[in-house]
Amino acid sequence: MNWRCRPALLVAFSFAHLPFLLSSAALNQFPLDPSELPPPSHPCHHIYGQILESPVAIPRYKLFNSLAVCYHQHGLIPSALKLYEYSIITSNKTFALPFANLAAVALNNGDHATANALVREYLRGVGFNGSSPEFDKDAIEHGSPCRKGEDKEGECCMALNNLGAGLLTGGQWEEAEKVLKIAENIMGKGHVMGDKVFFNLGSLYAEEGLMEDAAFAFATSFLNSFQVNPESFDPSALMRRALLVPPISNSSSEIIKTRNLFEQRVNAIAHMAYYGCEGVEDETLRDLLVVEELYELRGEIGPIKNRVIDPSKGLQTPHFYLHYHGALDRPLQELVASMHILLGPTDLLTPSSPMIHPDGRLDDFDRKKRLGFISSLFEEGEPHGLLLQDVIRNIDKTRYEVYVVIIGGEQAGDVIGKSADKVIPVGFDWPLARKTLDELQLDGLVFAEMQNEAMAHMLGFGRFAPVQILAMGSPITSGNPSIDYFVSCARSEHPLLTMLDDTESHYTEQLVLLEGVGISFPAPSGLPCASALSQPERDSTWLVDLHLPSKFLHFRKYTCPQHLFKLHPDFDAVISGLLAGDKKGVVLLQSAKIGRKTGMIRRRISSFVVREFGEEAGLDFLERLVFIPRVTSDVFHLLLQMSSVLLHPFPFGGSKTSSDAILSGTPLVTMPTPYLRGRMALGFYHEFMDDVQMHECCVATSVTDYINKALRLGLNDALRDGVEELMRRGGGKIFDNESVRHEWLLFLDSVLKNPAPSPYPDPPPYLGHDNVVFQSLQRRWLKDFSRSMSYNK
Ligand SMILES: *[C@@H]1O[C@H](CO)[C@@H](O)[C@H](O)[C@H]1NC(C)=O
Ligand SMILES: *[C@@H]1O[C@H](CO)[C@@H](O)[C@H](O)[C@H]1NC(C)=O
Ligand SMILES: *[C@@H]1O[C@H](CO)[C@@H](O)[C@H](O)[C@H]1NC(C)=O
Ligand SMILES: *[C@@H]1O[C@H](CO)[C@@H](O)[C@H](O)[C@H]1NC(C)=O
Q1: 530-588 per-position pLDDT tens digit
Q2: Which one of 170, 477, 489, 789 has the lowest number of neighbouring Cβ atoms within 10 Å?
Q3: What is the Cα–Cα distance from 280 to 199, expressed in whole angstroms?
Q4: Does ligand 1 come within 6 angstroms of the Cβ of 23?
Q5: What is the Cα–Cα distance from 518 to 492, expressed in whole angstroms?
Q6: Ligand 3 atom nearest to 246, measured from its CA
Q7: How far does residue 602's CA lie from ligand 3's centre (Å)?
Q8: DSSP letters along 659-725, please?
Q9: CA-proximal residue: ligand 3, atom 11 (nearest)
Q10: pLDDT at res. 41
């Protein structure tokens, strides 16, 4: 899984209206220690005061919930948890709301399954979707809050929103959409909960590739938050709208348009930090604000600087799909980074305590260095974690203390967990994550990636260690002034790297070129054995799962087992060329999790093929384009082994998928691009083939060359056998390769000995909505973009 979505969460702050006296006996087991009680100066104190009043106007169990919500909102989660439970107990389970709030805690911890179960308990309690309330006293007496026009429907919408968020997090798109739509329907227009519900709907549509719906939902979310709170609204939804990039593009020219509009919108919203909508070109403003009613309010919006309150929840997910266009991304990365610095909270760039690294500590040479690794992707078998696993395992523990900080709800994989001095989960809790990193007083902090998930993306702006390093988990520069080093490798970067662009490197960090390939995945154990393929009775068990029509079973299989968003429109020509060039060949692609996206790609490829070969021949060819279902990793390896040729996508290839291909012993065709993300397979090939060998069989220089090489490998058994033999003999070099870890450790040693002199960078100057700057950014990447695509000609 390469992509993480983080839905908007919300905690309800709810008081009931019914006066009700609670027996004071319930207070005997009040769950908080005296030290956990709010002192008179604490904002939650007045609720505690109400609890102490006797008699109270509001049932105590409701006040316990209210006090819990207050604690929850102030980040005092353990106390809040105790109070939510206490509220349920003291109500004799006649009060459902705490279940919904407990769900919000679980969701923040990344535990969406528990969260969903808790919301469903709440819905059972209050009655939902036509069924009557089961235990909530108010709902039984006064009717369910989950009905349209209820004055307490906010509660229910909050719960449904969080259920939608939980389902989204768990990838249950269709369920999530149903639930969020119900919430939308219950709340009606201009509701306080509207910003969250539309925010999540926007996120859902964006992932489904419904870009217009997504833009509309985000703009509506922003409209809601602006109308409900015109003085102190949060512009996160508008920021999300600005950053929207479709997961699947229809054509190369559409990609150019997408990037153009993206740049204009991000520029506009950065400009809005100081000036509101004034001075933004009308066309851009309409594209950004989308909703007519919002556009009409443009004069009232005003400056939005530092208005994003929780930058990780506000972002939900970075502009991940932009990088699959294959263009030079540095200028846009820098633009997005300066936008975050403008819109994010004032302390985005700094740790919460300004003096985490008193100078004296750096001079203490005998002290162990404190090194942190952070990601949401350190779980067992996750490629981003595997990238660093061998490094983390082999760090000299007599000289280093190793801390692994886990974002989200997954556990650290076994090896990483055991290799660390301490594994610290921070969930999706932004203040907790910052506090944790701050208190660790690290000498160095390594991000496995910063482009797949919002928390890592945004934490990267802080300064938690004098040396901050980005590994190539997502092989893209951060554009972020707080990241000092990008660790890449000599083998997979362009040999004329510094001559590629006229004026600058395409990294904002100091680029580190490790010798060799810089990545060594652990050698897998217990792979399904290739001989399974020759046993017909075993064939059936897993082949059936592929839904491959039986008439194609013995056809040559050209397989691209990748996420469909990696298939650039230019790749359609490859698929088309193979279908036409080998009438006894099938092209196998892997369906997306979301059916609609598979449909989009299928339609795009189909219209290309029909354009190329005419209706009749085209449709005939397309019968041999098969979308197989997503498969388990065992079946995945069998799929690679049974394929005749593997097709590596361009302009964004991948490292784990290349190494899987090499492991399977099936030849992989690749076409390197100027940037790291398109050269990783090439890097691996260098480890066991010489230049002539790899260019002979597998490394293409143009789309036509790609098609020819794939066909030759498919049709020429002797050639394929030769390449397979090379892969079998040499492919092992890329796994568990000590020299990779050695390179990494040398780098860490040298850089932590001499940390960068300026740990607190000044924010870069704001460039403004200046047409000159804008034009030059534009030229730079457009030119490069066309160059990177010129292999097409
Ligand atoms: C819960 O049950 C106990 C014992 O039956 C009773 O004393 C108490 O009043 C009940 N509390 C509520 C909130 O109904
Ligand atoms: C609501 O009830 C209907 C009919 O009973 C059912 O089909 C639908 O799936 C339910 N919706 C949800 C979100 O549970
Ligand atoms: C892509 O093409 C399809 C079908 O022609 C169309 O429905 C869709 O709106 C297009 N997408 C974009 C982003 O233009
Ligand atoms: C590890 O990789 C290096 C080059 O990066 C290579 O020279 C060496 O042979 C590999 N080691 C093993 C044990 O395969």
Answers
A1: 444 444 444 566 777 788 888 998 999 999 999 999 999 999 999 999 999 999 999 99
A2: 170
A3: 24
A4: yes
A5: 8
A6: 13
A7: 12
A8: HHHHHHT--EEB---SSGGG-HHHHHHHTTS-HHHHHHHTB-SSHHHHHHHHHHHHH-HHHHHHHHH
A9: 250
A10: 85
Number of helical (H) and strand (E) elements in the chain, helices listed first: 33, 12
List, in order of start, the domains of the chain with CATH numbers.
359-511 (3.40.50.11380), 530-734 (3.40.50.2000)
Output the CA 143–ligand 2 centroid distance in Å: 19
Half-sphere exposure of 387 (CA within 13 A, CB side): 29
End-to-end CA distance of the chain: 33
CA–CA distance from 764 to each of 341, 391, 480, 776 (Å)? Answer: 9, 33, 10, 18
Stated as kind and residue range, the H or E segment containing 486 is: strand 485-489
- Token pair listed for 442: 């690290």
Whether the predicted pLDDT of 607 surpasses 90: yes
pTM over 0.70, yes/no: yes
- Bridge partner residues of 372 (DSSP): 403, 445
Largest CA distance in the chain: 90
Ligand 3 mean position to 647 CA, how many Å? 26
Q: Tell me if 180 CB under 6 Å of ligand 2.
A: no
46 CB-near residues (< 8 Å, 6+ apart): none
Question: Is residue 739 within 6 Å of ligand 4 at its C-beta?
Answer: yes
How many C-beta neighbours within 10 Å does residue 134 have?
Answer: 15
> How far is CA 546 from each of CA 400, 432, 558, 627, rounded to the nearest angstrom?
47, 44, 14, 9
Residue type, 532: A
